[in-house]
C-alpha cells in the first residue's frame, strides 16, 4: 500500500527504510491514523521522519504527492458507484459483511468522510492567501493569533493547513545558513571526528585495571588505553571587511563557537583583507601594527594543522592574479600564489564561503572559480560545514 | 476516531497539541520509543511525566549526563565492593548477584507492571551512547555475563527519549524510534498552558504577560529565546512580587526570570531604553 509514496520519498532524498514502511503499514492496519487525512499525515510523519531537519522536506513532498488526490473526482466515482448498487456491493462486499451495515448507510458515511477531506484539501488555497495578511510576523508581539486562528477553524482544525501549506519547519533544514545553536552542533562533528585520530599515547585504564586485578585474585594487572583527548590543531583564516560585511554576524558566530568548542589542542585564528597577501592580521580590524608575515606562518606552523579559510572569495581578479592590486602592501606575489602555497603546505585545508552558490559555477565571481581550483570549497551551512569537516579529516 | 487508540489525552496540568497527542498514542500503540525534540523549555520532559500520570503508570527517569555510559542504565557490577568483601572475608562473596545493581533500564524491565521510562536528554552523552542501547531497546532484554543471566522485560515499558539536538543521533537508532518535534506553542495554546498552571490568573495579567512575552521573543535577536517554562516562572514571580501589571511590556520587570543569558539581558535593556512607547 502506498508503495509509490515510499519510492517518491526516497527519490526525494528522505532516508525511509523498508522497516519504517512496515511500521507504517502496521500502524495503518491498527487504525492509528483514525481514518482521517490529518491522522495519516501525522502517522507518516511520526514513523518516517527522524529528524527536525527533514520535517520541511517531508511536508513539501507529502503535499506534492497527495496534492494530486482529487476529492472531487473520488466523490464522483463514489457517486457513480452508488448509482450502480450491484457493482458497489461487489467492491465493498467484504466490508459490509464485516460491519453488518446496509449499503445506503455506508455510502452516506463515505460521503461524509469525503466531504471532510474535501474541506481539508481545498483549504490551503484559501488559507495561503489569508495567512499572507494574518501572519505578518509579530514585530509588535500581537501577531500570531486572531487572524490565523479564524482561518484555521474554517479549515477544520488548524494542523493540516498549517503543516502542508505553511511549511512551518523550514527553519530546521540543514542546508540553509547556520544559526548559533546549530553552529555549535556542527562543531561537535569535528570533535567527533577528532576522537578517531590515531595516537600512540596511553593512559591508565582504571576500570580495566580493577577488573583484571580482581579476575586474577588481587594480583595487580595494569591495563592501559588510549586517551580520548582531541589532538586536533586548527588554523583559521578569516576574510575581514569589505565584501564580508554582510556576513559579519555569521563569522562572529563561527568565531564564538570555535572558542566555545575549546576542544582543539591548538587553535590559531588570523585575518586577511579580501585576498591573502604578505602579511596576515591578528584581529579583525586588520591593523598593520598587529600583523605577522604570511611567510612566517608557512615556515613555522607545521603541516599537521588543519586549515580553514573563511571568505566569500569575491575579489578583483587583478588582486588575485597579479600582485600590484594589493590593497595594503607593495606585494611581489599575487594572491593565488599565496593560496597555492598554503594548499601545498597544508594538505588538510578547505574554504568555507558564506554566500549561496549559484547553479552554474560560471555565474560566481571569477575569483571564486579560481580559488575553487585550489581549495575544496563548502558553503558555511550545517550541511556544508559537515561535508567540509569530513573533507578536512580525510585530506585528499 | 477510534476511542481505544486514544490512551493518552494529556492531563490537567499538561496541555498538549493534537499532533503530539496523536504521535504519542501512535508510539505507545506501536511499542516504539518516542523521541521528542524541541526548544528547551517546551515541555519535553513534562510529556513523560504527564503520560505516566494520565495512564497511571510508574515513571522511571534516567537523566543522562556527559559521563553516562549505556552500561549504567542496564546494571552495574560493583567489583570494588566485592574485592573488599573478599579481603575481609565477608560472607556471600561467591554470590555474584549480590554485587549486581540494576540501572534504570534494568529497573524498568524488572518492574511488575508496565511503566514509563524517560531517557532524558540523550544527546548529553557520548556520541556512541545511543548505539550501545540499540539491542536493549529493540529486544527489551539484556545479558549479564557476570551471572550468566538474561534480563527480559516483563512488560515492555513506554519509552520516552528527549533530545536538545546538541548532538545528532545515529541513523540506526533513529530508525527504531517514533519522532516528534515539539513546536513552540502559539498564543492560543500558550493561554491554555498558562491557565492549566495558574487557573485563577486574571485576564488582565494574562493578556499583559502574553503581549510582553511574544514581544520579547519575536522582536529581539536573542541567543536563548524564552520559552514556556520561562513564561510560567515569570508569571509566578510577578504574582509573588505584586508589581502592577499594566505596563509589563514597556517596563519588563523581573526580566531575569524570562531571559537567562547576560548578553540577551543587555540586548533587551539597550533596545527598550530607546524604544519605550514608540512601538505600542
TrEMBL record, chain A:
Lineage of origin: Bacteria, Bacillati, Bacillota, Clostridia, Peptostreptococcales
Top-rank taxon: Bacteria
Stored PANTHER family: BLL5662 PROTEIN-RELATED, BLL6692 PROTEIN
Species: Lentihominibacter faecis
Name of the protein this chain belongs to: VWA containing CoxE family protein
From TrEMBL, chain B:
Residues annotated as domain AAA+ ATPase: 30-188
Database matches in SUPFAM superfamilies: P-loop containing nucleoside triphosphate hydrolases
Pfam families: AAA_5
GO MF: ATP binding; ATP hydrolysis activity
Entry superkingdom: Bacteria
Descriptive protein name: MoxR family ATPase
Amino acid at each position: 500500500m502506498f508503495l509509490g509514496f515510499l519510492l517518491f520519498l526516497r527519490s526525494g532524498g528522505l532516508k525511509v527504510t523498508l522497516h519504517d514502511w512496515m511500521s507504517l503499514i502496521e500502524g495503518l492496519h491498527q487504525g492509528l491514523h483514525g481514518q482521517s487525512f490529518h491522522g495519516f499525515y501525522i502517522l507518516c510523519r511520526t514513523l518516517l521522519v527522524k529528524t527536525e531537519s527533514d520535517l520541511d522536506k517531508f511536508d513539501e513532498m507529502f503535499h506534492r504527492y497527495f496534492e494530486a488526490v482529487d476529492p472531487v473526482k473520488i466523490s464522483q466515482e463514489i457517486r457513480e458507484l452508488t448509482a450502480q448498487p450491484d457493482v458497489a456491493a461487489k467492491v465493498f462486499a467484504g466490508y459490509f459483511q464485516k460491519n453488518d451495515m446496509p449499503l445506503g448507510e455506508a455510502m452516506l458515511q463515505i460521503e461524509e468522510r469525503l466531504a471532510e477531506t474535501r474541506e481539508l484539501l481545498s483549504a490551503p488555497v484559501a488559507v495561503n492567501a489569508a495567512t499572507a495578511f494574518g501572519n505578518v510576523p509579530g514585530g509588535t508581539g500581537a501577531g500570531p493569533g486572531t487572524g490565523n486562528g479564524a482561518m484555521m477553524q474554517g479549515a477544520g482544525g488548524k494542523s493540516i493547513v498549517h503543516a502542508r501549506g505553511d511549511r512551518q519547519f523550514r527553519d530546521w533544514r540543514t542546508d540553509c545558513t547556520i544559526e548559533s545553536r546549530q553552529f555549535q552542533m556542527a562543531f561537535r562533528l569535528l570533535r567527533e571526528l577528532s576522537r578517531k585520530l590515531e595516537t600512540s599515547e596511553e593512559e591508565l585504564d582504571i576500570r580495566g585495571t580493577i577488573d583484571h586485578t580482581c579476575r586474577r585474585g588481587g594480583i595487580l594487572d595494569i591495563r592501559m588505553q588510549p586517551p580520548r583527548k582531541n589532538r586536533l590543531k586548527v588554523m583559521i583564516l578569516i576574510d575581514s571587511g569589505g565584501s564580508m560585511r554582510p556576513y559579519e554576524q555569521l563569522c562572529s558566530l563561527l568565531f564564538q563557537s570555535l572558542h566555545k568548542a575549546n576542544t582543539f589542542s591548538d587553535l590559531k585564528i588570523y585575518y586577511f583583507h579580501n585576498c591573502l597577501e604578505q602579511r596576515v592580521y591578528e584581529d579583525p580590524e586588520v591593523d598593520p601594527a598587529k600583523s605577522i608575515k604570511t611567510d612566517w606562518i608557512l615556515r613555522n606552523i607545521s603541516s599537521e594543522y588543519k586549515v580553514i579559510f573563511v571568505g566569500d572569495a569575491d575579489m578583483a581578479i587583478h588582486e588575485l592574479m597579479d600582485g600590484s592590486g594589493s590593497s595594503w602592501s607593495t606585494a611581489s606575489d599575487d594572491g593565488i600564489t599565496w593560496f597555492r602555497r598554503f594548499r601545498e603546505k597544508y594538505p588538510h585545508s578547505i574554504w568555507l564561503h558564506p554566500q549561496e552558490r549559484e547553479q552554474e559555477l560560471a555565474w560566481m565571481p571569477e575569483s571564486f572559480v579560481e580559488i575553487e581550483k585550489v581549495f575544496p570549497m563548502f558553503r558555511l551551512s550545517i550541511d556544508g560545514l559537515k561535508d567540509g569537516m569530513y573533507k578536512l579529516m580525510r585530506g585528499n | 476516531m477510534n476511542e481505544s487508540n486514544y490512551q493518552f489525552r494529556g492531563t490537567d496540568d499538561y496541555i498538549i497539541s493534537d499532533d503530539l497527542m496523536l504521535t504519542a498514542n501512535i508510539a505507545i500503540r506501536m511499542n516504539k520509543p518516542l523521541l521528542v525534540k524541541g526548544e528547551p523549555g517546551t515541555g519535553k520532559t513534562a510529556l513523560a511525566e504527564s503520560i505516566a500520570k494520565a495512564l497511571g503508570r510508574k515513571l522511571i527517569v534516567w537523566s543522562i549526563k556527559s559521563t553516562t555510559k549505556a552500561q549504567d542504565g542496564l546494571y552495574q557490577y560493583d567489583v570494588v565492593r566485592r574485592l573488599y568483601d573478599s579481603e575481609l572475608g565477608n560472607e556471600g562473596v561467591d554470590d555474584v548477584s549480590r554485587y549486581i545493581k540494576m540501572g534504570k533500564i534494568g529497573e524498568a524491565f524488572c518492574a511488575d507492571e508496565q511503566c514509563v521510562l524517560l531517557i532524558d536528554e540523550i544527546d548529553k552523552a557520548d556520541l556512541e551512547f545511543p548505539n550501545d542501547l540499540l539491542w536493549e531497546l529493540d529486544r527489551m532484554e539484556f545479558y549479564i555475563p557476570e551471572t550468566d543471566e538474561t534480563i527480559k522485560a516483563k512488560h515492555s515499558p513506554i519509552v520516552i527519549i528527549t533530545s536538545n539536538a546538541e548532538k545528532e543521533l545515529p541513523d540506526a537508532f533513529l530508525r527504531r524510534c517514533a519522532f516528534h518535534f515539539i513546536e513552540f506553542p502559539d498564543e492560543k495554546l500558550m493561554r491554555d498552558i498558562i491557565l492549566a498552571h495558574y487557573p485563577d490568573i486574571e485576564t488582565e495579567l494574562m493578556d499583559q504577560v502574553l503581549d510582553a512575552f511574544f514581544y520579547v521573543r519575536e522582536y529581539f535577536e536573542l541567543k536563548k529565546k524564552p520559552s514556556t517554562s520561562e513564561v510560567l516562572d515569570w508569571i509566578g514571580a510577578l504574582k509573588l512580587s505584586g508589581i502592577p501589571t499594566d505596563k509589563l511590556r514597556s517596563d519588563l520587570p523581573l526580566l531575569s526570570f524570562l531571559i537567562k543569558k547576560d548578553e540577551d539581558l543587555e540586548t533587551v535593556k539597550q533596545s527598550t531604553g530607546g524604544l519605550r512607547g514608540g512601538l505600542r
